[in-house]
Amino acid sequence: QVQLAESGGGLLHAWGSLRLSCAAAGRTFSSYTMDWFRQAPGKEREFVACISWSGSSTGYTDSVKGRATISRDNAKNTLYLQMNSLKPEDTAVYYCAASSYYTTRAGAMNYWGKGTLVTVSS
After folding, report:
1. Which single residue of 3, 112, 113, 121 has CA 20 to 30 Å from 40?
2. pLDDT digit string, tens, across residues 96-107
3. What are the phi and psi torsion angles at 46 (to 5°)?
4. CA torsion 10→14→17→23, rounded to 10°?
5. How many of the other CB atoms lie within 10 Å of CB of 15?
6. Per-residue model confidence as pLDDT tens digits over 25-82
7. Are 36 and 99 in contact (CB under 8 A)?
8. CB neighbours (10 Å) of residue 53?
9. 97-101 own/partner pairs: CB under 8 Å, 24+ apart
């Protein structure tokens, strides 16, 4: 089994910043693309950011571009999401996911974490 475990969520203030982590356990998929998705209450899950495990490619949704940075530590099989200038619209459960190729499609993900809640107050 492969497990993805998110951490770093919590109650934050607008204009603050966050740093989420996603640790992979079990089989190592060092060549897999890693993604962040989020799901706000009453809304569908949406893509946030992705990074090839080699680090050669990254991508972001328009709503976080310029505020967010996705990165990884391959030695620790850990994925990170740093985001500043937080706004209430960023409130959501954030999920990390892994796929066998570089993609932003939720349906292409092979593994999912169970999510970490981020709440941004105004």
Report:
1. 3
2. 999 988 889 999
3. -125, 150
4. 30
5. 11
6. 876 667 789 999 999 999 999 999 999 978 889 999 999 999 999 999 988 889 999 9
7. no
8. 19
9. 97/4, 97/34, 97/35, 97/36, 97/37, 98/2, 98/4, 98/24, 98/29, 98/32, 98/33, 98/34, 98/35, 99/32, 99/33, 99/35, 100/29, 100/32, 100/33, 101/33
